[in-house]
Amino acid sequence: MDSRLPPLTNKKKQVYVKVVFLKVGEIDTIKENFVADVFIQARWREPQLDNRTATEKDLSEFWSPRLLVHNVLDASKDRTWKELVHDREGAAYVVEKRRIKGHFSEKLELMDFPFDIQSLSLQITSELAESKVVIFEDTKEISAINVTCFVDEQEWQLYDYVESVQEISTREFSTKKHIQFPWLVVGCCAVRRAGFFVWNVILIMTLISSISLATFAVDRSLPQNRLQLSITLMLTSVTFKSVANANIPKISYYTHLDRYVLFALLFTYVVCIWHAVISRFTYDVRVGELMDFWAFMSFLIIFLLFHFIYGGFLIIQYLLRRKELKTKELKYEEKALKLIGNSWKSDRQQNKRHRRKPIRMSRVRVAHIPEPEPDLTFLMVDKDDM
Question: Residue 93: is it exposed, middle or buried by C-beta count within 10 angstroms (0-12/13-18/19+)?
C-alpha cells in the first residue's frame, strides 16, 4: 500500500459524527460543569481505499478531521482508535472512535432556577477551518444516552433523547482574522427536581413573611412591640437568606428563587415601615384604626395575589416546557425507530422497567452490588476495543 499522504483538495470534507452518553455523573450547578463518560464516533469518506483493506497504522497516514471536544476540562480516560469500513457498494469510510471520561464545562441558563431545564452538551469542533471540513450529525447511526446509569438522579431528571445543533464559530489569531470553524453541539436534557428548594427555601420564606401579618394583632397603641416583632422577622429572613445562599449559584442576574426571596424580604420590610408610620397618627383614634385595618387587608390581598400569580406562572411554564420536551422525545423516538427498528423501543422499555425496580438488601448480610454496566447497544464495537 502506498503510504504517502493523499493530495490536498479544495473540496470540503464531510464528517459524520454520533455521540453516545454512556454514563452521566454529577451535575455541579455552582461550578457549571458535569461528569460524563462518552463515546464519540466520526466517519468520513476515503475514496482511495475503496474495495481495499488497511490497518490502523495505515489509516493514521491519511487525511484526518482533527476533531476535538472544546468544552472538556479534564479527562481521566481518553482513548482514540480508527477502523476502515465499507458499505454495500464497496465505498470506503474511515471511522474514528473515541472514548472519553471526565469533566465537561456547560454554561447553565439559571434564569428559571430552581425550575430550570439544562442541556448537557459536547461541543465538537475541528482544528481545520470551515473551508476544509464540515461536521454533520450522522444520518445512518443515531446518537443516544444511557439514562439507567445516571448518578445524580435525586436532583435531576434525565430525558431519553439526544439532539444536535450545527453551528459555525469564528476565532481570531495574530496573523489571520475572523477564521471560521465548524461546530457540532450534541447534548442531552436534564430537568432539575425542585423539591429541595421548594420545601427548604420557598416554604420557609413563605412562613416567615406571612407571620409579619400577625403583628397587626398587637394593639396599635403599642408600636414598640409591633416594631420589635417586625424587625426580628426581618433579621430572621436576612439570616435565612444568607444560609440558603450556600446552595444557590452566584450569578449576576435574578432567578425565580431570587425574585421570590426578594419579595418576601420587601414584604416584611414594608410591614415594618407601616408600623412605624401608623404610630404617628395619634390625633384621631378612629381614623388610625381604620387606616390600620385597611392596611392589613391590603397587605393580605397583595400577599395572596402575588402567590397566585407566581404559582400560576410557574405551573403554566412547567406544562409548556414538559410539552416541548415530550415533543422532542417523540421526534427522537421516531428517528430511532426509523434507523434501528422496533428493537430500540423494546430495549428502552426493558431498561425503564429495570430502572424502577428497587434493589433489596439483606438485613443480616449485605453483598457487594457492582456498578451497573452502561448500555452499549449503540456502540457496535468489539469488547476488545473498549
Answer: middle
- Residue 279 corresponds to which cell in the numbers above? 404610630
At 285-311, the pLDDT tens digits run 788 788 889 999 999 999 999 999 999
Percent of the chain beyond pLDDT 70?
A: 83
CA 130 to chain centre: 28
Peptide bond just before 114 cis, omega within 30 deg: yes
Between CA 184 and CA 168 the distance in angstroms is 8
- 314 phi/psi in degrees, rounded to 5: -65, -40
CA 112 to chain centre: 12
Span 216-228, average pLDDT: 87
For helices 256-278 and 223-244, what crossing angle results, to 10°?
170
SS3 107: coil
State pLDDT tens for residues 321-355: 999 999 999 999 888 888 887 766 666 655 555 55
Q: 3-class SS at 91?
A: coil
∠ CA 99-101-102, rounded to 5°: 150
What is the SS3 assignment for 386? coil
pTM for this model (two decimals): 0.79
Residue for grid cell 415594618: 272
Stretch 207-220: mean pLDDT, rounded? 90
Rg (Cα) of the chain, in Å, rounded? 30
Nearest CA to 33 out of 146, 163, 123 is that of: 123
CA 351 to chain CA centroid, nearest Å: 22
Non-local (6+) Cβ contacts of 126 within 8 A are: 15, 65, 66, 67, 68, 133, 135, 181, 182
